[in-house]
Amino acid sequence: MRTGTAPDGLAPRAVRWLAAVRPFLRPLVHRRPALVGPSRTDQLRALVAVLDEAVAAQPPADEAVAACGEPGPVSRGTARDCGQQSIALHRLRARLQDVGTTDPDLVAAQARAVRLLAYDLWMLRASMNLACTVRPGDRTEAARLRLNGLGRPADDLRRLRDTLRAELSGT
Question: 54, 48, 40, 139: which is closest to 93 by C-alpha?
Fold first, then answer.
């Protein structure tokens, strides 16, 4: 090909270059639609379902904590119940963290519920530590005897679930 003349066709090198670049150009020309996540109602429904299970798991955990605070020696059954309830709450907390929420209000509610369940787990562990200590002292025994359940955070989790459930029934 001479300078100043019209090209008869593409040079072989240009054809090879075009063949090499074409796969990278294709996504720019043929865009796929963006993936759409679950709706807010679906996210709310999934969050409420896990919270229902968490609230249902609270009475046995509450009883296990209260049993650790009873006077006298702690039974093996009490220790086993605390362990089982701790496992159940830990699994529910992991499931709650895995709920895919993107709505800012639901993300905040999910984070609050995770914190409340973390408190329940901490309370179970602390009550077991007080009840099954190797060397009980007067202060440890006094603290153990004050244990009577999960307390206000369990009520807060129930109220959060009820609020979200009411919002779900309103949609």
Answer: 54
